[in-house]
Amino acid sequence: MTARMGDKIMLIFALGFGVLLLDQLSKLFVQRNMLSGESIPLIPGVLHLSYIQNTGAAFGILKEKTLFFIIITALVVLAILFIIPHIQREHLFLRLALGLILGGALGNFIDRARFGYVIDFIDFRIWPVFNVADVAIVMAVGILFWQLLVHNPKN
Fold first, then answer.
1. Which residues on neighbouring strands pair with residue 43, listed in sequence order?
2. Given 23, 111, 120, 123, which residue is catalytic?
3. DSSP 8-state code for residue 150
4. For residue range 49-76, what is the model confidence (pLDDT) as tens digits?
5. Stretch (H or E) spanning 96
6. Is the confidence at residue 34, as pLDDT, over 70?
7. β-strand 39-43 against 118-123: which pairing, if any?
8. Using 50, 70 and 90 to split pLDDT, how confident is the model at 85?
9. Residue 123 falls in the annotated catalytic set
10. Which residue in 23, 111, 123, 134 is the catalytic one?
């Protein structure tokens, strides 16, 4: 492996590991300090810490499809691992997005594999409850979307 290859792989894995660590530590804090279904207002009416055990995906769709989500996540992680060596060094934002997706996907994967549900806790009251892994994945999608709109190479 060349030094350049190592640099681009390290960025993706370091970011992915950072997201995964933050996600799992925040979920551990919630699990150890709250009861499922409990909600603590941080900014009353705006931001609450609400411990939810989500057996579905975003917005609670596809409830009780844990095996399906485990398989899909494994495929996404494998696809990222396959793509990494083919990314050009100058594609920093793509590497950032893949690191965020990798960490977020693994964070929710670990929950599903361990518990059969994903621990969600960030509650803005006007949006479904979510977690750090979800934030990372949404940020990655935003980065990818921005790249497609702003930096789409001319034919």
1. 47
2. 120
3. H
4. 999 999 877 666 667 777 888 899 999 9
5. helix 92-115
6. yes
7. unpaired
8. confident
9. no
10. 134
Contact 80, 102 (CB under 8 A): yes
Counting Cα atoms < 13 Å in the Cβ hemisphere of 33 gives 11
Is pLDDT of 100 > 90?
yes
Q: Count Cβ atoms below 10 Å from residue 23 Cβ, excluding itself.
A: 24
Respond yes or no: is residue 120 known to be catalytic: yes
Q: What is the CA radius of gyration of the chain?
A: 17
Domain boundaries, the chain: 3-150
pLDDT of residue 59: 62
**For helices 92-115 and 3-33, what crossing angle results, to 10°?**
40
Q: Check if the beta carbon of residue 119 is closer than 8 Å to that of residue 53.
A: yes
Q: At what angle do helices 92-115 and 132-150 cross, to 10 degrees?
A: 150
pLDDT of 78 higher than 80: yes
The predicted structure's pLDDT at residue 18: 97
